[in-house]
Amino acid sequence: MYLIFYDAVMDDVMDREMMTKIFLKKVNSMVLCTGLCFSSFTYAADTVGTWKTIDDKSGFARAKVKISEESDGTFSGKIIEVFPIPQQSAEHIPEKCLRCTGELKNKPIIGLNVIKNFKLNPKKTSEYIGGSVVDPISGNIYKGKIRLSRNQNRITLRGYVGTSILGRSQTWIRSE
Fold first, then answer.
1. How far is 69 from 64, CA to CA, in rounded Å?
2. How far is 99 from 138, CA to CA, in rounded Å?
3. Alpha-carbon distance 82 to 62, whole Å?
4. What are the DUF2147 domain coordinates in residue numbering (predicted)?
């Protein structure tokens, strides 16, 4: 009789231990998933800020662009400062987007929305897609893709026509 009682108690204790282990595994999994979700949102949000654009042809800093998140969840960027190329006077900096077309024609360069409608890529949290890029010197408008570096201090902006193979990239550096 004592042996039957002992077996029943031990089965009950073992069931509780097993249930506790299963419960703890599920809690740990939920905590891990929650942490990963929040870390991806943090990573994505770090594109917001001020960036120094580096001309891919000359290698010189050309402007500062402030990227912000719009109310519809897309990202856009406006020029807030323009730099002259070394050995050129400030007179060579255009004040208006003379070669732009449509609503951007003759708009001031300072305040010009040069990137717009970028959305976070649901497959890659460090990439933004579906937006457009304006080159204020040529007036051309390109499709674009933005990639945030692992250290979150650089972005690579790729402007292209048709497919991203037919385009060029610029690296922008985070500016304080």
1. 17
2. 6
3. 6
4. 49-174
